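Try this one yourself first.
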């Protein structure tokens, strides 16, 4: 976990919730779902809708996606900023671990999310597979 971040117990389908230091109005959540959980484009459009953006197509999705290489495998990262008076921003990292897709989402006010972005991406880059049992 990034320095200064705090973990809050998960709830519902959330396995964990993290908050960055400094009272920033943003939080990171972790969710694991079976399979492709609806598909990449459907997920991207659901996330866009959560911050008031219109749906996109395959080309728009590709433009919003970067890929990070981690010990857990390639991680697709999406970054969206909503429009409007109070702009929300969402950064989502998705990694498929062979039958389960893990979603790490950082979401909140745009400026707060930008401040927490570095710590969030450090968390993502440090992902690694579970140790053998």
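Now uncover the answer:
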């Amino acid at each position: 976990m990034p320095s200064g971040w705090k973990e809050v117990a998960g709830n519902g389908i959330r396995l964990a919730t993290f908050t960055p230091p400094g009272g920033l109005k943003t939080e990171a959540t972790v969710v694991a779902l079976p399979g492709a959980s609806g598909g990449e484009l459907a997920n991207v459009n659901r996330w866009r809708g959560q911050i008031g953006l219109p749906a996109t197509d395959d080309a728009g999705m590709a433009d919003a996606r970067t890929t990070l290489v981690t010990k857990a495998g390639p991680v697709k990262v999406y970054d969206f900023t909503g429009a409007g008076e109070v702009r929300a921003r969402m950064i989502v990292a998705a990694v498929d671990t062979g039958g389960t897709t893990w979603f790490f989402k950082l979401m909140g006010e745009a400026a707060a999310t930008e401040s927490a972005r570095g710590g969030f991406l450090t968390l993502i880059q440090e992902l690694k597979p579970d140790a053998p049992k």
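Discussion: The chain has a mean pLDDT of 87. The CA atoms of residues 35 and 99 lie 5 Å apart.
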